[in-house]
Amino acid sequence: MKQQNQDSNALPLPQDHRFLIDEEHGRMERFLRDLYDTCAELEAEGGEHKVASCQGRLNSFLYDFLDIISEHFENEERLMEACLAVQEDKDYFRRHRAAHEKLAHQVKILMRETAELSKQGSTTLAIRHLYQQIGVMFGEHSREYDNFL
């Protein structure tokens, strides 16, 4: 018999489920970090060609990242839903799903802001802003929800 959760922000997941979620978190971090490492210091490096290349990378990144997080949220929710046993788990799951919806909405707004900054010729600033804001948003989400899975 499964024990009831002691923490209302917890959902016990099997180790293999936890591993898959952690792998996806790492994939998102690497994807964002790659863009940042390549393009965040353009002023120091100069080069019109590199600026144009990073503008193109940023546009692709924005679409790809949204797909990656949407896929991750779906996978995470599917894995969590398979583990629901008691009412507290179901309540936690509903809160976590609502947090994913809110986070996806915030990311879409951030992506519009980022694209606008880049169009205005501030690609490096746009990438730094994106990197910082994604870190804040996902860090808060992780501390509130994912660290308890």
Characterization of the model:
With 149 residues, the chain is mainly α. It has helices spanning 15-39, 42-45, 48-81, 87-119, 123-144. The protein has one domain. It contains five helices and no strands. The chain starts with 14 loop residues before the first helix and ends in a 5-residue tail after the last helix. The model is unreliable at 1-8 (pLDDT under 50).
The multimeric state of the shown protein is: single chain
Compressed to H and E, one letter per element, the order equals HHHHH
Query: What is the number of E strands?
Result: 0
* Distance between the ends: 19 Å
- What form results from the Cα inertia axes? elongated
Number of helical regions:
5
Q: State mean pLDDT (0 to 100 scale).
A: 84
Q: Into which percentage range does the β-strand content fall?
A: under 5%
Brief synopsis:
The protein is mainly alpha-helical and 149 residues long. The protein has helices spanning 15-39, 42-45, 48-81, 87-119, 123-144.
